[in-house]
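Box 4.2: Ligand-aware structure prediction
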Amino acid sequence: MRDRIVNLVRAGYAGISLITCEEQRAEAELKAVAEALDYRLFAWSTTTGLIDTADGQIVRQANDPLDAIDAVSELPENSLVLLRDFHMFMDDGNPVLVRAIKDELARCRTQGKVMVMLGCRQVLPPELERELCVIHLTLPDKTQLGQVLDGICESAKIDKPEGDERDRILDAATGMTCTEAENGYALSVIECKRVDPAVVAREKALTVKKKGLLEIVEVKETLDDIGGLDCLKNWLVQRREAFGERARQYRLPSPKGVLLLGVPGTGKSLTAKAAANVLQRPLIRLDMGALMGSLVGESEANLRAAIHVAEAIAPCIVWIDELDKGLAGSKSSGGTDGGTSARVFGSLISWMQERTAQVFLIATANDVTQLPPELLRKGRWDEIFWTDLPNQVERDAIWKIKVAQCGRDPKQYDVTALASASDSYTGAEIEGVVADSLYRAFAEDREPTTDDMQQALRDTVPLSKLSDQVDTLRKWAKGRARPATSPEPESKHRRIVA
Ligand SMILES: Nc1ncnc2c1ncn2[C@@H]1O[C@H](COP(=O)(O)OP(=O)(O)OP(=O)(O)O)[C@@H](O)[C@H]1O
Ligand SMILES: [Mg+2]
């Protein structure tokens, strides 16, 4: 980032819009840029006026942004000028200010002066869009987060963590700004007299969630919690070490992502969570509904911010659950929301295509008719899997898992009969049936039996019998997506028509 600004200044750019909420770090970066180029650095805000950062002296008591621009015209050549909060003055497209900036930019270009407008949001009137180069300050890297950590340890007079412990703390802090990391470290010192990676990770989860779109999901689920879906599970296991050093040396291509399509309740979300356990990376859920529901104009900025955090935490897994619901409006977007959903979808697609950070995407969806065809194109994903209604073998496994999960021994139940009786039920429905039978038995103060489960099964009408949606989805998936389950072996029994 620093190099990029240095190059822009050298190339004679007169205006830069620097987007970040980390003012101090941005200022430190600009100081380094000024030093590298032997430029002087001035800083302006409406409260302080224009200040020479070398000696802290006020150059002009200009509290009005127009005065500030005027003051820039009197600065010497080879100056960098940091203008704080300028986006707020341009929010309403103030025509006098916009004109003044344009005039000054033209002068700056010939005098080696650069105006850097610093703000936490990208607000540029169209008149200035082509005049300014927009740069998003990347989140701090581990070296910077380490410096903050050392600072906190010095203030708290505790030993600086080293080796693995230090790595774990810095891993936990990636994705936070310097201020957020400093707060996390300090809170940990107060709570447990040392910087504990778990406390830092917990604070990161909270800061990420506060921004509204992302949530770091704590995962307990493993592949053993999934009944069936053997092909999908094998595929994930093959990628177990894909983000490790060994994979890099082997030149294994970084896995991009997987799209899980299928019948509702067949374990797609469950698999996404278990995948985080297999790949041993943090799972970050991106809320597409909230993203699309944000105010027009903010959606794109929000997506950019979310991508920014995810890339800083990389290698990580970004999970987009129920992608179909989030994208439902993107096709007809022009008529309904001025094209916002379509634009956000476009940004998402281009990020998926171009991202270089090790972010593994797992998206789940069931209503494939809502998904734009561009999303299903081969090459977007490493694989598109289809999760169907479970077959006999899978239902057998699901029954055993669900019975064991409620603290009962599956051997006490006729699981084979239950699996046969639950043909065309999903995993979610089997889970519901087990819960229902527990209620029945609990009300009579006894243990649930196979009969209770059979009865609960008979009382539950599976979704696949209620609507032909499942049939439509299945027809669509044939040939388009890879089955998550290997085909059932052909029956070896003689077929007798009685
Ligand atoms: N194959 C399975 N093995 C074990 N549990 C399952 C399986 N399929 C579904 N379940 C259980 O059913 C519930 C719903 O599953 P999940 O949320 O993963 O379904 P989904 O495919 O994401 O459904 P939707 O399309 O409605 O989001 C979960 O509690 C999960 O544990
Ligand atoms: Mg789901």
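In the box above, the bound molecule is magnesium ion. The longest strand covers residues 113-119.
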